[in-house]
């Protein structure tokens, strides 16, 4: 709202007084904002907002000051929302604030984050992760400013280090079981078509691997791709993609390769890797990661090698006939999750997923597939009269 010139001069005098500024950071900025918003509307004009920043910008982080100045310079509505301002100050992710920043092809006025010097090792690591995973400079700077490593990327580290080895090493006294080992199918984790009624097997099969090479490739891909993605997108989003890929993988096996067991974390790993690669391809010009073409080639070669090995193993004569080797369909189930749900999650770093139409479309498709696979497992096996391998 418009304010009389005399009233505005009085407000500026009040701002100059240090006695009225609270000590708490958010209260401090709220008091400053309220001086220009006496009617408590939640908005001030961009001119007043710029005056506030000029007087007190030295108290801000340079990146945040830069973003706020860009917001003031190109705001077409001529006013600034207090909530958008305070979201940035408190490092909260805000869809509305991000949209306000990106609206109208706004351009940042200072050098790119990649050009900054004098950074510590941890700062360089965070910057590297930002450039590996995010296509927009504004997102990279936002992530660089707000990331605190609290909480750390616990999900991917836990699922990789603890879960893979706890059961094999402690219970079976063997870290990796080859498919030729007598205990390969005789445990409570592997998905087996005869034991498909035991619902936990659709998830726990990821804790068993068909040999050291199978485990090694999954661990490498999971750590190199999964940990940086979790650092940026958080454990909730990445664990959702991973678990959705795991479930889709075992259900795909139960529908398309009905007589085969399945082991390994390839469903979850391929969901993460395919989502990451698809996000890079869709934002190719914006991605500034070094050697991105070479890295994509290496990831695709590793995935192709592991998938080719799984296909070869599936049709190789079994060591324990009539039980076949593990299926490769879990890989394809993970890829489908990655290029649908995974891409939506990775593309919308700051936006709320519930606001995205494609999110609801792909989520609905996934739920329909899961329901179809459940009914298929209940009725199709008996209707088709398949000859299943004996239970382990």
From TrEMBL:
State the InterPro entries in the record: EF-hand-dom_pair, EF_Hand_1_Ca_BS, EF_hand_dom, Peptidase_S54_rhomboid_dom, Peptidase_S54_rhomboid_met, Rhomboid-like_sf, Rhomboid_IM_Serine_Proteases
Q: Which GO molecular function, any one, fits this protein according to its record?
A: serine-type endopeptidase activity
Domain (EF-hand) spans 24-59
| Keyword terms of this UniProt record | Calcium, Membrane, Metal-binding, Transmembrane, Transmembrane helix
Q: What is its EC number?
A: 3.4.21.105
Record-annotated membrane-spanning stretches: 154-177, 238-256, 262-281, 293-315, 327-346, 358-384
Q: What class of enzyme is it?
A: hydrolase
Mind telling me which PANTHER family this protein's record contains? Answer: RHOMBOID-RELATED PROTEIN, RHOMBOID-RELATED PROTEIN 3
Protein name in the entry: rhomboid protease
Organism, by scientific name, is Dryobates pubescens (Downy woodpecker)
């Amino acid at each position: 709202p418009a304010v009389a010139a005399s009233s505005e001069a009085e407000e500026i005098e009040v701002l100059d007084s240090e006695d009225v500024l609270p000590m708490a950071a958010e209260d401090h900025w709220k008091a400053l904002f309220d001086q220009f918003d006496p009617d408590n509307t939640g908005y001030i004009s961009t001119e007043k907002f710029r005056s506030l920043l000029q007087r007190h910008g030295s108290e801000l982080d340079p990146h945040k000051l830069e973003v706020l100045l860009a917001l003031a310079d190109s705001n077409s509505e001529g006013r600034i929302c207090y909530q958008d301002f305070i979201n940035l100050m408190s490092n909260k992710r805000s869809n509305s604030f991000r949209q306000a920043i990106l609206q109208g092809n706004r351009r940042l006025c200072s050098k790119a984050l990649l050009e900054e010097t004098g950074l510590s090792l941890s700062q360089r690591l965070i910057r590297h992760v930002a450039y590996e995973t995010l296509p927009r400079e504004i997102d990279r700077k936002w992530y660089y400013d707000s990331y605190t490593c609290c909480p750390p990327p616990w999900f991917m580290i836990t699922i990789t280090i603890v879960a893979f080895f706890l059961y094999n090493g402690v219970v079976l006294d063997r870290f990796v079981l080859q498919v030729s080992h007598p205990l390969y199918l005789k445990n409570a984790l592997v998905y087996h078509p005869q034991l498909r009624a035991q619902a936990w097997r659709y998830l726990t099969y990821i804790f068993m691997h068909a040999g050291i090479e199978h485990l090694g490739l999954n661990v490498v891909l999971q750590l190199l791709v999964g940990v940086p993605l979790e650092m940026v997108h958080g454990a909730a989003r990445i664990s959702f993609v991973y678990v959705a890929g795991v479930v889709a993988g075992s259900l795909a096996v139960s529908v398309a390769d009905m007589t085969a067991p399945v082991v390994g974390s390839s469903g979850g790993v391929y969901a993460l890797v395919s989502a990451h690669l698809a996000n890079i391809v869709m934002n190719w010009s914006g991605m500034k990661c070094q050697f991105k073409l070479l890295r994509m080639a290496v990831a695709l070669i590793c995935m192709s090698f592991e998938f080719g090995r799984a296909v070869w193993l599936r049709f190789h004569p079994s060591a324990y006939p009539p039980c076949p080797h593990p299926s490769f369909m879990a890989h394809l189930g993970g890829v489908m999750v990655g290029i649908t749900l995974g891409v939506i999650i990775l593309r919308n770093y700051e936006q709320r997923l519930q606001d995205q139409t494609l999110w609801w479309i792909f989520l609905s498709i996934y739920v329909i597939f899961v329901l179809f696979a459940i009914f298929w497992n209940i009725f199709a096996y008996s209707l088709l009269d398949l000859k299943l391998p004996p239970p382990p």
